[in-house]
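TICKET: design request
STATUS: open
ATTACHED STRUCTURE:
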């Protein structure tokens, strides 16, 4: 993978560094640098007119159904204690989902709603400014990450883990090696072989079905691994005394992520509603996203103080939470104009389409063993698979 010399900010940074850089550091720059990064500097564009669509940018249907999943989780916590509750959203983007969830919960009108505080965990200064504008009129008590102490409640991470920096690696004649990015002789960007993978990482990959000898894969076979997964889960766990974590993201089981035929991994660039393999094009102006490994997530959860409850495809989860009924209700005249009903129908169908947002996985974790938090007072949609 090479890019012609453009003498841009990334080339200048690599020139100052004077040596190749690994993909975790590179992705930290490309995505989260406060001056140049896609998220950090606020270059991200959400929605149908932007670079990519998220469930809440389609409309309010996703939040309305998600609130039905959150309701029993908070019911159980509220029944245990009369103290405050928190919805802690990591990576809240521009705040769309938070605002929509507030409206959905107000419609459900649970007795604990006035005890609920919203806590936003957002690293990007640019996005924090957008969130403030979006939320200031929503009437929801807001706590910034800096002021947030450990709480009782639910951590929500919608499309967060796919934006964590990953390590790209490749099979060489002498085994697995990191891939790095450097400048070529003309000053352009190129991907180059780096040092061998550590013994610790090789053991972790072997446990996920990717053997140290390559398992018959060809020399040059490439994939990725997320070293930031466990540290992120640990930070989330430190912010919660008791409760749940619901992560929603594109994900694959290890046997599919590391299948011999999936050469190249899942890391893609997204810009203007198009996904491509040119990861070094237009640095800081395109999203770079990789699928979550479900098995690695479950293992990291256990090592980070979480108890893995299970996972479910978003399409199945939303159908279990009443999406089919929402579709049926659109046939009634009280559902509004034909144009409004068609728009709502399109929104609902995109949420469950397995080739679109329906292919997301919902991953549920808890701070306590299953019997301590999932008693009779907590009725969770039953489609989760451990």
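STATUS: resolved
RESOLUTION: sequence designed for all positions
ATTACHED SEQUENCE:
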């Amino acid at each position: 993978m090479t890019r012609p010399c453009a003498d841009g900010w990334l080339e200048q940074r690599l020139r100052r560094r004077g040596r190749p850089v690994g993909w975790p550091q590179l992705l930290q720059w490309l995505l989260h640098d406060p001056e140049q990064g896609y998220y950090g500097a606020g270059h991200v564009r959400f929605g149908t007119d932007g670079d990519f669509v998220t469930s809440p940018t389609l409309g309010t249907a996703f939040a309305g159904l998600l609130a039905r999943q959150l309701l029993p989780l908070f019911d159980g916590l509220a029944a245990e204690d009369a103290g405050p509750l928190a919805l802690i959203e990591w990576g809240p983007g521009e705040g769309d989902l938070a605002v929509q969830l507030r409206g959905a919960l107000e419609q459900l009108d649970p007795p604990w709603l006035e005890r609920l505080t919203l806590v936003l965990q957002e690293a990007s200064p640019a996005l924090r400014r957008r969130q403030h504008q979006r939320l200031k009129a929503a009437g929801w008590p807001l706590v910034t990450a800096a002021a947030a102490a450990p709480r009782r409640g639910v951590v929500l991470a919608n499309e967060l883990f796919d934006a964590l920096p990953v390590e790209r690696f490749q099979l060489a004649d002498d085994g697995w090696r990191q891939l790095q990015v450097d400048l070529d002789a003309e000053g352009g960007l190129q991907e180059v072989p780096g040092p061998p993978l550590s013994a610790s990482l090789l053991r972790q990959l072997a446990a996920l079905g990717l053997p140290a000898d390559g398992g018959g894969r060809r020399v040059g076979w490439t994939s990725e691994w997320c070293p930031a997964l466990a540290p992120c889960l640990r930070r989330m766990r430190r912010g919660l005394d008791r409760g749940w974590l619901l992560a929603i993201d594109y994900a694959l089981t290890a046997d599919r992520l590391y299948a011999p035929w999936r050469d190249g991994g899942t890391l893609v660039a997204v810009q203007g509603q198009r996904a491509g393999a040119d990861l070094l094009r237009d640095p800081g102006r395109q999203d770079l996203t990789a699928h979550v490994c479900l098995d690695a997530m479950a293992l990291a959860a256990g090592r980070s103080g979480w108890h893995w409850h299970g996972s479910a495809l978003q399409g199945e989860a939303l159908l279990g939470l009443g999406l089919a009924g929402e579709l049926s209700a659109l046939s009634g005249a009280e559902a509004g104009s034909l144009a409004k009903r068609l728009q709502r129908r399109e929104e609902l169908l995109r949420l469950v389409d397995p080739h679109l947002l329906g292919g997301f996985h919902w991953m549920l974790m808890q701070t306590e063993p299953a019997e301590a938090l999932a008693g009779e007072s907590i009725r969770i949609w039953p489609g989760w698979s451990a």
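CLOSING REMARK: Residues 375-379 have pLDDT under 50 and may be disordered. The CA atoms of residues 58 and 347 lie 6 Å apart.
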